[in-house]
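--- STAGE predict ---
source: upstream dedup step, 1 unique chain passed
mode: sequence only
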Amino acid sequence: MTNRPRTAVIFGLSIKARFAALAGAVLLAVVAIGFARCGDWAQKLFLQVDTAHPLIALILPPALFMAVVWTTRRTAPLARGSGIPQVMAAARHPLSPENTAALSPGTTVVKFVGTVFVLLAGGSAGREGPSVQIGAAIMRAVHQRLRVPVTSGIIIAGGAAGVAAAFNTPLAGIAFAIEELAAAFEQRVAMTVMAAVMIAGLTSLGLDGDYIYFGAMTARINGPAMLVAGIVAGLAGGLLGGGFSRLLIAFAWSKTRWFALARAHPVRFAGVCGAVVAVTGYISGGLSWGTGYGTTRALLTGQSASLAFGPAKFVATVATAISGAPGGIFAPSLSVGAGLGQALGVILTPVLGPIPPGAIVLVGIAGYFTGVTRAPLTAVIIVMEMTADRGMILPLMATALVADAVSATVSKRKLYHALALQFH
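--- STAGE serialize ---
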């Protein structure tokens, strides 16, 4: 008799928890779609300004970077940067005051608006990292509203669902949760994560249509060329991606005078970073503006682009990432990787013979993305889901494993794990 009330409470809480996960996943998918539309609108508006008034386009990046960083610092300092480190820290200590603030409604709004304004300034940023923080915040808010306990698993599920909804890649969301968001992934969290990710993915699919992020690809690399291309792309991607990670970690933690001076004057430094973005965009003829989605997709379909695309995106992404403004590095990293793959195609074709352009671009993306994130499983799955190309699994996996090993020698600490220490 005494167990019946307790059993009823547990059963009721279980139903409420499942409903909260369902409602949170649906809501964050809707927000992710709106976020994507706002981001696309901001990029198109900036390109129109760049075409009609090039001088204004040169002024916008430093001016808006400074305004966004000043506003973020004054209103929601935990909205700065990617958002993934904040979620990792919150998953470890979900009830700490700082992590509660990182997932608060105010921080979420500043993250959303700030990222859109960075894209309006032509910044080389993505919305996928911010979608992780926004997704975790929405999931937390829904559970709090329904009076369901907020656990690490809930925060991880929200963050992973944010990736799934942003890229329309459910499997990559699950892989990202396992590899990055959960330092010690518990079995009991698995069902919550998978349910939230799949619900968010299906909601996004239902509302925004059945789309593949970069379009369906059928490129292939066969025989010895496959092995050589994978190893070379892994080496190059690991070196470049590891260097990028090491630079961002140094900016966050190094005590050398230059880095310390930049951190001491965040608004002025944001202006300098905006100026770098502006000059890079001007010199490259606009190749470095925004996420780089259009050029990346063109390269994947076998079209040509200037070889300056990869280097320009790398410089602009570094400047945007260290500026302190909200914005992610997922989409820009895919673009830098595409530029790397294009360059490798030019180098390897005389040695290996003709290589399908889309195929070498794919391994370039996998190599650089793995080098930055040190998440090889996520890299392979996200590339396959974004292109619906399962025939490249072997070269992609070889590339990712090599890149992960090389990146680990360049940057001993994983990027997001090192940055998450700022929020403990």
